[in-house]
Amino acid sequence: VALYVLPSAQSRLLAWKKTIKLMSINKSQLLEGSQAIAQTIKNLEPGVISAYPITPQTHIVEALAKYKAEGQANYEYVRAESEFAAASIILGASATGSRVYSATSSQGLLLMTEVVFNIAGMRLPIVMTCANRAVSAPINIFNDQSDVMAIRDAGWILLFASNHQEAVDLHVIAYKLAEKLNLPVMVNVEGFIITHSYENVIIPDQKLIKKYLPDYNPVLGSYLDPRSPITLGAFFTPEYYQETRQSLHQDLLASQNIIKQEYSLYKKLSQRKELSALKAQIDNGLIEYYGPKNPEIILTAMGSMTGTIQEAIQKEKSVGLLKIKSYRPFPKEEINKILAKTKNLAVIEKAISLGEMGPLYSDIKAGLENHRINVTNHIVGLGGRDVTQKIIKDIIKTAKKKIGEAKFWA
């Protein structure tokens, strides 16, 4: 479809574009997901950004590079020759007391793995976006959640967004969590479904961000500085290493209360309205629950397919949806409170722990207090395959059956 603009209308079109550009950033805009994330990161004013392009993350860092080139941002944008280098650059910058950012995907995240573990072990408050994508081989550039599952035990807070607005808001909250807890945070958004699609979204301006997130001023002695020398990432013998892992583990578990508090505070400041097809009965930053008080069946999932599930169950009076927003720390107690009211749980996920079950299923099953509940595992959407309402409705039909292995849906 071609649109031809008459010369007489061209001036009006230019004026309209100018008006849109001058509109307050707090107004709803139709944006590509990557652009929405990039605008948000710019407004968060990091000191250093470093990344290496990889589909489907590239639009985010391209936009951030453009902001720097056009003089719209003051951060240092460091070009890297690989994802390993990009992760190392932000590690070093964070270790010297700077607010930092990077983004990656799939093989890029795997190339960063060594540094990702180091970042958590050094307790650096780094925020990174993962545009979730299938892992090779065979080569596939489309989305599932296999990449982040490969580093789920690295010691990061792992948050999952289901739409553009949630992706934007979670990045703001991520910086507050990272800098308050000295823990790295990864915000997961599904490639193409979120990164390349367009939705109406409100980008928080710097005024709102300043109310919620103060300037980053780490205490002298907590970062590398000749005035107060410290050591980061030192060699630890067996007598001491285990305690460092225990401390990181306990702090991740304890972060659940802070996540709930910060989510509530940000939601109040930003005055966010309900955007989903159904109204959430519970929405606390760790999980969301939609549906009846005593559902016969609950479906649980993470990421964008929760929107499809909401649409599919609108007319289902006995089916609820448990949406996991924080995968690490894993909100076991919050999940058990919801599952205590049902007899059947269908875990739907875009990843498989090869040779076992889905990782989300394994985590839920391990922490389940109600052992009488029938839990089934449903693998969907690998390599970007569509997750349709028909698939969801077919899963509902089988949710009461005893299925002892992961079921793959086409």
Please explain how this structure is put together:
By secondary structure, the protein is an alpha/beta fold. 40% of the residues lie in helices and 17% in strands. The protein contains 14 helices and 16 strands. The protein has helices spanning 7-22, 33-44, 58-69, 83-95, 106-111, 113-121, 146-149, 164-181, 206-212, 238-270, 305-312, 332-339, 359-367, 389-398; strands spanning 29-32, 48-51, 76-79, 100-104, 127-132, 157-160, 185-190, 198-201, 282-283, 287-290, 297-301, 319-324, 326-328, 344-349, 374-379, 407-408. The strands form three sheets. It has a seven-stranded mixed β-sheet with strand order 3-2-4-5-7-6-13, with helices on both faces. It has a seven-stranded mixed β-sheet with strand order 9-10-12-11-14-15-16, with helices on both faces. α2 (33-44) crosses α3 (58-69). The protein starts with 6 loop residues before the first helix and ends with a strand.
